[in-house]
Please model this.
Amino acid sequence: MEKIEIISIKDLKPLAEDLKRIYLEAYREDYIYAYRDPSRVKRYLKWLMKHADGGFWVAFVNGKPAGFIVVQPDCRFHGKVVPEIHELVVDPVYQGQGLGKLLMQKALEFLKKRGFKRVALWVGEKNEDARRFYEKLGFKVTDRQGAWLRMEKELEDKAYDQISSKESSTKKASTTSTNSMISSGV
Model:
């Protein structure tokens, strides 16, 4: 039996190379929505850490990093503060085993404890696996900007709690915020 731990991180340095590898592996065949250059990925990870404000978790399987999720609580959209999930990435070796769902659960619990009622994320319009994954968790498309779809979820929604781990067998569940891709300066 594999031991799974989801741990909040405050310092990127000890895990930077592992997280960069996971990101590049997860996006290996995704030339539309992801950074390809390893040095750019490293800068992006630093940007994520800077804006996470306590919302950066890494999933470990038997002590080895296997995925991560990053939330930015203070995002603004049309003048309103709505936290955004900037990245949910699972190593392809571990995809379809419920890690993405566990990471999402940790992020949603974090936001609920901080009093937020809503969360959003951006997903590539052609990333159908990720979109289906998020829809199963109760996210709904609320906006479109270019090749990106904004999905939002009410945090009071019980749909997330009703999902069985068998239903979350997506091969790819990763997202990148349009804001992080465009305005992060990465």
Q: What stands out?
A: The chain has one domain: 4-182.
